[in-house]
Amino acid sequence: MQTEAELKDFILNGHLYYIPHVSIDCAIFGYHEQQLKLLLIKHKAIDGWCLPGGYIKRTEKLVEAAERNVKVRTGVDNLFLQQFKTFGDPDRIQFNKFDQQQWLELTGIESWEDTWLFDQTISVGFYAITDFSQTELQTDITTEKCAWFDIDALPGLEYDHDEMVREALHTMRVQLYHYPIGINMLPEKFTLSEIHALYETLLGKKLDISNFPKKLMALGLLEKLNEKRSIGAHRSPHLYSFNKEKYGEALKNGVVLN
Amino acid sequence: MQTEAELKDFILNGHLYYIPHVSIDCAIFGYHEQQLKLLLIKHKAIDGWCLPGGYIKRTEKLVEAAERNVKVRTGVDNLFLQQFKTFGDPDRIQFNKFDQQQWLELTGIESWEDTWLFDQTISVGFYAITDFSQTELQTDITTEKCAWFDIDALPGLEYDHDEMVREALHTMRVQLYHYPIGINMLPEKFTLSEIHALYETLLGKKLDISNFPKKLMALGLLEKLNEKRSIGAHRSPHLYSFNKEKYGEALKNGVVLN
């Protein structure tokens, strides 16, 4: 939404284009050089930070709704979004936190409770991991700002979004053992130290470096190149790359990594 | 629902007690002596088999809705239900498959399209594993029958329920590597062969028996008892049991098994 006319129509008639009672929320993790961040937004009508999200068009699949909502609210595009959990609890949203004055005048409606927006909502959580240095953030008419926060220094989030972040992190870390990760977050050719640092940062714990890449190699995901990188007088570590075919298969079928 | 009056009220006024546009569907896997089965129901108003499911009361958490729906439709109680995926696609439900004559007369409504039930629905999938020999099946007023089917001989299911079963099986098999399983499906004291057979049956593949229990032992989940079972002249395998404390912790925090 970019105009007030669109916003007014959304409040008055949104239930005709969107599925009421169901929303999407997205935990977008950003990795770059051993830092892990989370993308948060500040709605104009809510005092505090939230995960980006929104509603599902009646013509959309869930994942399409997630992609569209992340893009319009944050400018971030082409994410590989994965569902992690759906949240439903009568107490999960406190509507009184919504600033009622800001937009009510626009619509001519007397009370927010007369709109389709103020009723119980189930929210489907998606997560993604991207390189935050490659993203260009931008906001829409309902969003005051969006920004990357260090995963260890998050502000307290609105509604049940703290719980969502915990669940998203847990699922992301479990899925690191079952799906390949790294394309788009590592250079085309990388050292074992670089992929090791990626895994350690995402997992939030130390991994045995001598043992770690063996399984990736055994699965055929990682290929040792006949090439080294010179990083100092006596230091020229071997370069590796992903086998894209095996990587694609593993994304589809899953693997077991330990 | 057990009476026609309740059914009529559900069709006419259900949107006041239930959240419209959101349903629950449950894949209940049943294990017993190396057999894996799935619990299916036949609604009176739909020609074909479905997963048990239903709507979420406005006062319920999601998992409570799942437990209640499984119990009323199938009689099966006390399940450890886990979310696996939420399904949303404009084409996922074909309402014309619904037998419109059976209950319309009861309500006095002219067309199903005038009810809250005939609009787009997102469905939250849950799965559970139980010992099917311990269950007592029973039906409610909307259910013609419910029954256990061998996992390798399922009928084609209605709507998107075939996809739901595939996704539930996939998630269950991934989660076998991250959460303990077996209490309620094995005797209090069991042999390594018995727990090995449980894992092989659930995973649908062979596991190396010499290697398999080591990780369970190393994690402290499995304890070797100073006791043997006599099953023949020269065969008396050691008995094992779960360490309930470690098992509970692992259920809560997850583990990595390989």
UniProtKB/TrEMBL annotation, chains A, B:
Residues 19-171 form the Nudix hydrolase domain. InterPro entries: NUDIX_hydrolase-like_dom_sf, NUDIX_hydrolase_dom, WH-like_DNA-bd_sf, WH_DNA-bd_sf, WHD_NrtR. Gene3D superfamilies: Nucleoside Triphosphate Pyrophosphohydrolase (3.90.79.10), Winged helix-like DNA-binding domain superfamily/Winged helix DNA-binding domain (1.10.10.10). It comes from the Bacteria. PANTHER family: ADP-RIBOSE PYROPHOSPHATASE (PTHR43736), SLR1690 PROTEIN (PTHR43736:SF4). This is NUDIX domain-containing protein. It comes from Mucilaginibacter celer.
